[in-house]
Design a protein that fits this description.
Layout (H helix, E strand, L loop, with lengths): L3 H25 L23 H9 L16 H5 L3 H21 L2 H10 L2 H11 L2 H8 L4 E2 H8 L3 H13 L4 E4 L2 E3 L13 H6 L11 H16 L2 H6 L14 H6 L5 H5 L5 H13 L9 H4 L11 E5 L5 H9 L4 E6 L1 H14 L1 H5 L3 E5 L13 E5 L7 H14 L5 E7 L34 H14 L6 H10 L2 E8 L6 E8 L4 H18 L6 E3 L18 H19 L7 H5 L11
Parallel strand pairs: 4-5, 4-7, 5-6, 7-8
Antiparallel strand pairs: 1-3, 2-3, 6-11, 8-10, 9-10
Helix pairs in contact: 1-2, 1-4, 6-9, 6-11, 8-9, 11-15, 11-21, 23-24
Bound molecules: S-adenosylmethionine.
Length: about 600
């Protein structure tokens, strides 16, 4: 039973964290920054021991903190402050504590209603994004526009629009300036594409070109991902998936869209051109997964790599991550691999935003299916950002194994993904395990609850779209090991962020996995007539293939399994799918040991 002192402790935590934010803000002001102050290694003042003069400064300087009222201003010092690692930590404590406090003080019925009818919020967000009302409201300014005029421009029913905007305003997304008059605020304008409404209206397919990808991300999340989520119950509770798809990767998405295909193949289908384009831009928007700064950026010592080192961005999308790295580390070369249509979109995006590195040949795109043998055999790094979470375990093993087969002893594998924290303390002692993200004796959930909810939203998104998941550290470590990669380091920036960079080095491949790989590869060769149908774009000459896998063929258990797997694989590929049948999920080959944390 909680006591008032528990509630007051949470309340005090919020106050302390706010003090920390304010102190950092003051210490970052050039006029008041004291060179003799207790500065930490990252250049900010210590959170724990404010000097007397700092406290005086706090009282004198008006804090320019972002209010909800004005539009989002990415250049305001206050928004920059919110990306400061120490501030990110403090704001997480505030969100975690307020979430926990609300759950404690609110009548359970209402919290349960939030949880069970919260689906209206994404529906309304979809309407907001797809109707481009945010762009109309930006053009109108802070005075706002009556729903009659808004609806006339957006071509929709004014009353329905009004109710949607009011629900959003009630969640601090947009504001009702006066009855039925709405304007943007900091949160609604965050999804502003920045484009002219009439231009978007005349060519909606180009809405996301050249943007930061946030509107695209909202569109994607509230369209195909949200619709798929609505089928979660049918798919899992009624165990209904097998009737609708023949693929191992079958997910509620297959029910929602009446397709048997895997999500990425479906994106390539006729009629989904806008969704495919939007997906590419939405990946640019996923920079927001990173808690202040960039984990891709800080999650590895890129500067230490030798001149001309080759980074292979596997499933690199339109190359947003590589672009950030290429600009910061001009001494590196990049090969961005993805599916052919995505590669085409990527080349267009780079020609627009960073043509010089393409022209010089230091950055190349390559159409390559990561389930087939990896053609690059001298990579310094295989970088996979938000790739493994798209695939069920055995598919991840296959992807990583192709990379293991192509690795040199010095090659590093970097998996950038959410590392799903337990909702309790992590006492596994695994490399990179964080026991708790909460301050000692704070009473907060060890994973900071609501403050890290995005990791869990995404986890379920992966379930419904790909029959996959975000993985715990143990799950990631095991799956890497199943393909011959040993995790040696986990980097989280700032400390305790659930979005991390997992660094692994080559180790021996378990015999069963090696065998499966060789069989799968052989089937592909037999079916396709040639190992890989890769296409190179740009002039850089990439290295040729060779194979290094060793197997213990004498092992009789392995030989028995060979027979079984041969059957499984030939059935899989004779159906033309990317994987096996649903039934095979249950008869999972023992290559990717299912992680039991
Ligand atoms: C979640 S996105 C991540 C994109 C990129 N790494 C990023 O962080 O922006 C997954 C990417 O995997 C690509 N992909 C899916 N199946 C693939 C395959 N079989 N071979 C190569 N790439 C694939 C998709 O086209 C998509 O660009």
């Amino acid at each position: 039973m909680a006591t008032f002192s528990n509630l007051r402790a949470l309340h005090a935590l919020i106050g302390d964290a706010l003090d920390d934010v304010e102190r950092i803000f003051v210490s970052c002001q050039p006029s008041v920054h004291s060179p003799t102050g207790s500065e930490s290694s990252d250049g900010t003042q210590s959170l724990l021991s404010p000097s007397a003069s700092e406290d005086e400064e706090l009282n004198r300087i008006p804090l320019d903190f972002p209010s909800l009222d004005g539009p989002y201003d990415p250049h305001s010092p206050a928004e920059a402050l919110l990306s400061h690692p120490a501030v990110v930590h403090a704001t997480k404590l505030i969100v975690s504590a307020t979430g926990q406090l609300a759950a404690m003080v609110q009548r359970p019925f209402l919290t349960i209603c939030d949880a069970t009818m919260g689906y209206h919020l994404p529906s309304c967000m979809r309407f907001l994004e797809a109707s481009h009302v945010v762009e109309i409201m930006r053009e109108t300014g802070p005075a706002g526009l009556h729903i009659r005029e808004l609806a006339a421009r957006a071509d929709c029913d004014p009353n329905k629009l009004g109710h949607i905007l009011r629900l959003l305003a009630t969640h601090h997304i947009g504001t009702e300036v006066s009855p039925n008059v709405f304007a943007n605020n900091r949160l609604s304008s965050f999804i502003d594409s920045g484009k002219d409404f009439n231009v978007i209206k005349s060519n909606p397919a180009d809405k996301y070109e050249g943007t930061n990808g946030i509107a695209a991300y909202v569109g994607m999340c509230t369209d195909e991902l949200f619709k798929s989520s609505a089928y979660l119950t049918d798919a899992y509770l009624l165990n209904d998936i097998s009737k609708h798809s023949t693929l191992t990767s079958a997910a509620p998405f297959n029910l929602a869209f009446g397709t048997k295909g895997q999500f990425f193949n479906w994106l390539d289908e006729e009629g989904n051109e806008m969704r495919l384009k939007r997906f590419g831009h939405a990946m640019t928007g996923t920079a927001g997964y990173e808690d202040g700064g960039s984990i891709t950026f800080q999650g590895f010592d890129w500067g230490a790599l030798g001149k001309g080192s080759l980074i292979v961005d596997v499933g690199g999308g339109i190359g947003s991550t590589s672009m950030t790295l290429a600009k910061a580390f001009p001494h590196l070369r990049f090969c961005i691999q993805d599916r052919p249509k995505t590669v085409e979109l990527g080349i267009l995006a780079w020609k627009e935003r960073c043509p010089e590195r393409l022209d010089s040949g230091e950055v190349v795109f390559q159409a390559h299916d990561f389930f087939t043998p990896q053609p690059i055999r001298n990579a310094a790094v295989f970088l996979l950002r938000v790739i493994t979470h798209d695939w069920p375990d055995e598919f991840v093993t296959r992807i990583l194994l192709q990379l293991r087969n192509a690795a040199t002893p010095q090659t590093k594998l970097i998996l950038v993904d959410y590392v799903l924290p337990f909702a309790c303390e992590d006492r596994t002692g695994d490399i990179g395990a964080v026991r708790t993200m909460a301050p000692p004796s704070s009473g907060l959930l060890p994973n900071l609850g609501k403050a890290n909810a995005n990791a869990f939203w995404l986890d379920m998104t992966m379930h419904v779209t790909f029959n996959s998941k975000e993985r715990t550290l143990r799950e990631m470590t095991d799956i890497a090991l199943s393909a011959g990669w040993q995790v040696v380091e986990v980097i989280r920036k700032p400390e305790g962020s659930p979005f991390g960079s997992i660094i692994a080095v080559p180790t021996s491949v378990p015999p069963s996995t090696a065998l499966l790989s060789s069989l799968a590869e052989q089937e592909i060769i037999e079916r396709a007539g040639s190992p890989v149908g890769d296409t190179f774009y740009s002039r850089t000459q990439l290295p040729s293939r060779g194979t290094t896998m060793e197997m213990n063929q004498s092992d009789s258990a392995v030989r028995r399994m060979t027979k079984r797997l041969r059957k499984t694989i030939s059935r899989t590929f004779s159906r033309g799918g990317q994987g096996g049948e649903v039934g095979e999920e249950k008869r999972k080959p023992p290559m990717a040991k299912s992680a039991s944390d």
